[in-house]
Amino acid sequence: MSQPLSDDANSSTPRDPAPSSTSTLKAIIHHSRLNNTNLNFSTSVEGPISITQLFIRRSRLSTTIEALPPSPPLLSQHGTGYDLTNSVFSPDGRNFQVEYAVKAVENGGTAIGIRCKDGVVLALEKLVTSKLLKPNANKRISTIDRNMGVVSSGLLPDARHFVSRSREEAASWRQMYKAPIPVSALADRMGQYTQAYTLFSSVRPFGVTSIIAGWDSEAEVGVDGQVGSGPSIGAGGKQDIKKKGGPYLYMIEPSGMYWAYYGAATGKGRQSAKSELEKLDLAAGELSLEQGIKEAARIIYVAHEDSKDKEFELEMCWVSSLAGPTKGRFEEVPKDLREEAEKLAKKAIEGDDDEDEEKMET
Amino acid sequence: MFRNNYDNDSVTFSPQGRIFQVEYAQEAVKQGSVVVGIVSKTHAVLAALKRNAEELSSYQKKIIPIDTHYGVALAGLASDARVLSNFMKQQSLASRLTYDRPIGLAEITNRIGDRAQSNTQSYGKRPYGVGLLIAGVDATGPHLFEFQPSGVTQEMLACGIGARSQMARTYLERNLDEFAGSSREDLVKHALRALKESLSQDKELTVDNTSVGVSGVSEEFVLYEGHELTGWLDATFENKEETTAEGGESMEVDS
Amino acid sequence: MDCHPEVWGRPRYEIYGDYDHSHLHTSGPMQHTQQPIVTGTSVIAVKFKDGVVIAADNLASYGSLARFTDVKRLRKFNSQSVIGFGGDVSDMQYLDRTLGSLDTNENYSNSDQPLHARNLHTYLSKVMYARRSKFDPLWNAILVAGLDGEDMPFLASVDLLGTKFSSPTLATGFGAHLAVPILRRTVPDEEAVQQTTKDQAVELVKESMKVLFYRDARSLDNYSIAVITKESGVELKENEKLENQSWAFADQIRGYGTQVN
Prior knowledge:
The complex is a heterotrimer of chains A (362), B (255) and C (261).
Chain A lengths: L1 H11 L14 E2 L22 H17 L4 H4 L20 H11 L4 E6 L2 E9 L14 E4 L2 E7 L1 H22 L5 H14 L11 E9 L29 E7 L5 E4 L1 E4 L3 H10 L9 H16 L7 E9 L9 E3 L2 H27 L1
Antiparallel strand pairs in A: 1-8, 2-3, 2-9, 3-10, 4-5, 5-6, 6-7, 7-8, 10-11
Helix pairs in contact in A: 1-2, 5-6, 7-8, 8-9
Chain B lengths: L19 H12 L3 E5 L3 E7 L13 E5 L2 E7 L1 H22 L5 H14 L11 E9 L2 E7 L5 E3 L2 E4 L3 H10 L1 H4 L4 H14 L12 E7 L2 E7 L4 H7 L3 H7 L2 H5 L2
Antiparallel strand pairs in B: 1-2, 1-8, 2-9, 3-4, 4-5, 5-6, 6-7, 9-10
Helix pairs in contact in B: 4-6, 6-7
Chain C lengths: L12 H4 L21 E3 L2 E6 L2 E7 L2 E3 L2 E4 L5 E4 L3 E8 H20 L8 H17 L6 E8 L5 E7 L4 E3 L2 E3 L2 H5 L1 H7 L3 H6 L2 H18 L6 E8 L3 E9 L20
Protein name (chain A): N-terminal nucleophile aminohydrolase
GO molecular function (chain A): hydrolase activity
Keywords (chain A): Hydrolase, Proteasome
């Protein structure tokens, strides 16, 4: 999927020499599909492609641009007046306010998610902005329901808004269906909610990109409030139903666009994090959760290399199968495991540095 | 002349992804007089410098006790702080009524944070123009939280906000290691010294312009004002004359 | 969809039209619950020096019909409380879900400050009182057993009116008449609580459950029992059988069981 994206970038704005190897993660796309329609607005855009999909291409595009040295094309668009209000299109079909919201995300600490074969891990580079902050407090990965959680990059208060709405959605799902919300349904609802904030001039888009991780139970879960197992014989007896369940990972962007991912990254160090994630061959589904937390820690350390002068804390949460270490619940990674992963991460980084030096010498 | 077009309301992002209205609201905090908060393993302390409009007027209230276990110190628009503190009082009472449990400090801080955030995402609303330090003790021990107009809330070991508060923060950073183990008295002294750092040269801390709030493990939040402060002020700044000559040095030796 | 964020995600006006209030204005007087339908009988509990024992049988009756025989009326709440429900089973399920969402909410903040039994009892009493004040009570009698904020044994009750009280021994329903006198023989007051061991308390409760089964026609010899202590948290057994039953005493009693005269 990464190829069409960069092609679009080239064709629609010939001024940016977007690299063809734009590192965009392979996404498992069920819910929305980017077709290969060229972003040529003089011809009519094909049927079902939605406005937000166009936005997202553009915001992806600006991501690409930002990675390149000077970026005059984007800046030159300012001041024409179309970027002053949310929900207003510019003549070439962009919603600038959404793109600016993406900028807020790009300055946040790196957040990543890895979907392993037996669970999902979320990790966050939490930059320490002051010595006076209480160490290991101010947790930023939040639980949504027992089996899922979310990490965000961008404006902290917006992230909390996102989290509390997610919790409301999860609670209202339970109210209605007496069962936990599937991760896909939560991503869908939050995608819609986020998108609504791009539609009106009375609000602004969310200044966060959020990664949702969860485990849909593979076992049959009782109905909430169930007090017995029902008749053991005769009518009303139970049938064995195959339930799917498993690990899920989604990322929702300020436009409301979301995809399912094998590995997702956002925030300042997303570029290097993404290229590290791609090396893991997550689509093969071989990586174990235990290995996953080590990789997650390492990737956060790698992504931090660019802002090495700032201190940071690593925050990690995970969710596993019922048989796994978290018993289907979304929890913080235990301290000893996290510290071990951090130790390995530091070692890996130092190893890389040594290699670099050796290369320099030779 | 350059005019910033992106700063008229809180629903407009600048091209860099900033929300200027919120940043301007943060400036309002810097207009308020300085307040300082510190926690130890057993206590949480707030100290504030009060201002009066003129010689004969009363001093502006800076520390508001909310529930028996905690209070807040404010810097910025006092009327906004009243709105928030009334909300906090209400929520605290609701917790006691419904669960027979003093509300957790992290919980109440989150609630005002969420309230402040909603003011930054809708047209026709403005961000709160006040910063708060929330200090007290709950079931998990002493805590200090900082609240900003943007809705950002952070748990701190020590913090100072308001006019010239950078000096106070510098003092706090320098003495950070001592706070955890400090006694109640030492913690108050540290807070007063940090406060003093932020004062302009010609000003002194007096019983009139200083407020101190203290709460501890199995000790209710108490606000100290006026002559109740004499002892602490005398004990903290006993070598007042020397300090002018030698700077901050002599003050730190005894801590 | 409109420009008010607070209505986003709610049923859409364009599709569903105005909210239909008609069901609120039916002709004739409005009637709320007048009686419980599917019911559970007694819950009994007793404090001992390190904790609390609580028990209830596994029967849900539909009138005099023993309709459901595997209904678990002791519900565990986090690791230090058990709530026993007597009365309407559907209202119990409603309360159980309410407590479930309360627990979820509590776990959002990973602070180590869980709701203890006293908090839970206060909360339930407010819920029950609020509902009775709407003249629409939740038809239950509830015992809350667990540990309070100081990790001391806690036992208290609340009923459909929101009435709440505490005692070293408590029972709801028939148990209040039949079991409490037996429990009080051993544990008359807080002083006696200190003299009672876990084994004694469990034995006492089991004996009382047996008496209840002998005397209460809406009871079952299959029951749940939970012990809550600081050391081991909640030990909940949900499928116990009354042992050593002896119906010899019934031999000469007229009108007992199937024997009518």
